[in-house]
């Protein structure tokens, strides 16, 4: 079956060069009088490139046992090339892959997998599914978001909401078309329809598509109603019974300030998912049970921290977030994937994530700049998680001496971390066997073989700082001239490989027009001292400075001194901030600023 392409779509495909085009992108949702919902989705996808073939050869549709089910009405390949027959997709049901990869145990989280055999460029993949939502987690708060744009082109999209007459349908659109509303007996039908739309850029460090694409969100509750209903379902109230003795013993060890209590929970309660409680995958365990097990999901850690804060006399509550992107202005029970805690203090509200493996920040970098839903009695609107300021510091101290040929620097190295870099190192090193960590550190810090580095602190112990120290060897490019050497000591671009990999990815691609999100923003600081054994030297560069990058150096009889710093951040930035970051990365990559001229013979 071949669909005719209109001129607007042809122009769109030529200008945007997508990997696929959705000839049809439709969804219809219906609220029934018994409180259940039906969600029907239909997609006609045409891969246009080998990447598009790979992307859509296998599709997955998540669902959760006990809450909803998914049936596949149509899943077939309609070939473009003559001589090939229509062929059905292979349909299987399996544990949701994201859960298995994260070592979680929520067996009720499943997915329907569709596998198309031997798809080719130009084939049409037709998929029609029906999801029946029998009940919603924790509270009857329904919402649905429909996107008129994706990472590929969409030729035609249509979203329909069928609602019982008399029930309020709340709608919020971002770049969405104007809806058409009609009555069909006892039902109200609202339709949004759109023609061809260009794809949304989805590259490294881009703002999530969910925040930039044209979309509409519908809900049967206001945000305030969702907050109040989920508060009633999740908030455990004041500590009572056996848990108070457990809480008092923890406070006696950890202290009674919010930061110390958060670090205790993050350090002592390991992460594992489980089908626990009356609402599998959602209901938290009592604090004393979480302490006894020594592990739990984010909801368990959050309720434990909440109990500790309240026992310490600090007004606090639970807060729901979606860790992948900001929430839209309407939400429902299914809008969230993470639970944190808010606490009142002299300086205002603080947000605390007891699942974050970081000692020097109250929550992980992924949550910075996101919005959230505090759960309070009577309900409230969405709140904002501060994007900063944070001390995201990589401080590197090096002191050493050049080899006789001036081409190798042998030095003592120490690195100190805080904020996002600390979080990154704890995450990386916790997955590296102890015997393999010296080699991992050598690669991470750009050293030569023969270096002897060791990790300082334990990745799992949030009570102690983490860093690295030891003996390091670095290559020094050298050019011998009449009576002197031109040398290039190592700088941030050679030593701080995390920042250098960021530069390699961002400087080799077109800048994102909508801003950036960084997984690990950092303020790099390098202090380098090189003994010259009495040789006369001269710095061939000049001081450079800006708010994001600076370098200064000096050459005296005792040696060479370099101080270099670069700010690679913040975590979230607009297009102007992204432009400044790219300029900082370019300045950081200019090696000629570290050139020294050194006499071949020492002074007598």
Report on the architecture of this protein.
This protein is of the alpha+beta class. The chain has three domains: 7-219, Immunoglobulin-like (Sandwich), CATH 2.60.40; 227-384, Roll (C8orf32 fold); 393-599, Jelly Rolls (Sandwich). 22% of the residues lie in helices and 36% in strands. Helix 7 (258-268) packs antiparallel against helix 9 (298-311). It is globular, with a radius of gyration of 29 Å. The N and C termini lie far apart (89 Å).
Summarize the structure.
This protein is an alpha+beta fold and 604 residues long. It is built from 14 helices and 36 strands.
Layout of strands and helices, then pairs:
Elements lengths: L6 H10 L3 E12 L5 E11 L2 H7 L1 E7 L3 E11 L8 E2 L1 E6 L1 H5 L7 E7 L8 E10 L9 E5 L5 E2 L2 E8 L5 E5 L5 E5 L2 E8 L14 H4 L2 E5 L3 H12 L8 H12 L3 H11 L1 E2 L15 H7 L1 E2 L1 H14 L4 E6 L16 E8 L2 E5 L18 E4 L8 E2 L8 E10 L5 E10 L2 H11 L6 H8 L7 E5 L10 E9 L2 E4 L2 E4 L4 H4 L1 H11 L8 E2 L4 E10 L5 E3 L4 E2 L3 E8 L2 E10 L3 E2 L1 H14 L7 E4 L5
Parallel strand pairs: 1-10, 1-11, 16-17, 23-30
Antiparallel strand pairs: 1-2, 2-8, 3-7, 4-5, 4-8, 6-7, 9-15, 11-14, 12-15, 13-14, 18-19, 18-21, 19-20, 21-22, 23-24, 24-26, 25-26, 27-28, 28-36, 29-35, 30-34, 31-36, 32-33, 33-34
């Amino acid at each position: 079956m071949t669909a005719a392409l209109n001129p607007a779509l042809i122009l769109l495909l030529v200008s945007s060069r997508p990997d696929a085009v959705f000839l049809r992108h439709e969804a219809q949702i219906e609220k029934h009088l018994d409180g259940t919902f039906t969600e029907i989705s239909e997609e006609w996808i045409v891969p246009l490139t080998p990447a598009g073939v790979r992307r859509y050869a296998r599709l997955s549709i998540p669902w959760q046992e006990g809450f909803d089910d998914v049936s596949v009405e149509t899943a077939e390949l309609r070939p473009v090339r003559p001589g090939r027959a229509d062929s059905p997709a292979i349909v299987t049901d399996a544990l949701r892959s994201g859960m298995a990869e994260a070592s979680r145990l929520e067996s009720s989280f499943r997915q329907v997998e569709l596998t198309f055999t031997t798809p080719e460029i130009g084939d049409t993949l037709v998929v029609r599914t029906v999801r029946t939502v029998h009940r919603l987690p924790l509270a009857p708060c329904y919402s649905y978001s429909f996107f008129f744009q994706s990472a590929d082109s969409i030729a035609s999209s249509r979203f329909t909401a069928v609602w019982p007459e008399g029930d309020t349908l709340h709608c919020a659109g971002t770049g969405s078309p104007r809806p058409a509303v009609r009555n069909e007996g006892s039902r109200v039908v609202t339709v949004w329809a759109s023609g061809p739309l260009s794809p949304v850029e989805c590259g490294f460090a881009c703002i999530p598509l969910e925040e930039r694409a044209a979309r509409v969100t519908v809900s049967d509750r206001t945000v305030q109603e969702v907050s109040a209903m989920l508060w009633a379902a999740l908030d455990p109230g004041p500590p009572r019974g056996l848990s108070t003795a457990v809480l008092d013993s923890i406070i006696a060890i950890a202290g009674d300030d919010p930061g110390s209590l958060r670090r205790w929970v993050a350090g002592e309660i390991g992460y594992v998912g489980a089908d626990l409680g009356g609402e599998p995958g959602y209901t938290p365990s009592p604090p004393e049970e979480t302490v006894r097990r020594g592990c739990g999901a984010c909801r368990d850690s959050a309720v434990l921290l909440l109990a500790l804060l309240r026992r310490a006399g600090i007004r606090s509550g639970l807060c729901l977030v979606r860790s992948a992107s900001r929430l839209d202005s309407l939400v429902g029970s299914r809008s969230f994937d993470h639970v944190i805690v808010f606490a009142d203090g002299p300086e205002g509200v603080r947000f605390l994530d007891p699942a974050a493996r970081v000692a020097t920040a109250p929550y992980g970098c992924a949550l910075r700049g996101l919005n959230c839903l505090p759960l309070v009695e009577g309900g409230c609107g969405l709140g904002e998680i501060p994007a900063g300021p944070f001390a995201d510091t990589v401080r590197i101290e090096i002191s050493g001496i050049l080899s006789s040929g001036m081409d190798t620097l042998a030095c003592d190295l120490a690195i100190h971390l805080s904020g996002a870099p600390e979080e990154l190192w704890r995450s990386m090193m916790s997955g590296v066997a102890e015997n393999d960590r010296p080699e991992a550190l050598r690669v991470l810090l750009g050293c030569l073989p023969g270096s002897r580095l060791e990790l300082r602190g334990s990745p799992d112990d949030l009570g102690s700082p983490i860093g690295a120290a030891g003996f390091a060897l670095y290559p020094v490019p050298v050019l011998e001239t009449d009576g002197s050497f031109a040398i290039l000591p190592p700088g941030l671009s050679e030593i701080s490989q995390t920042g250098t990999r960021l530069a390699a990815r961002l400087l080799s691609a077109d800048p994102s027009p909508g801003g950036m999100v960084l997984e690990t923003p950092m303020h790099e600081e390098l202090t380098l001292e090189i003994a010259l054994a009495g040789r006369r030297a001269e710095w061939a560069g000049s001081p450079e400075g800006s708010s994001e990058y600076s370098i200064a150096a000096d050459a005296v009889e005792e040696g060479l001194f370099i101080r270099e710093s670069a700010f690679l951040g913040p975590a979230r930035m607009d297009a102007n901030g992204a432009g400044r970051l790219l300029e900082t990365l370019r300045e950081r990559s200019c090696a000629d600023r570290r050139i020294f001229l050194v006499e071949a013979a020492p002074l007598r």
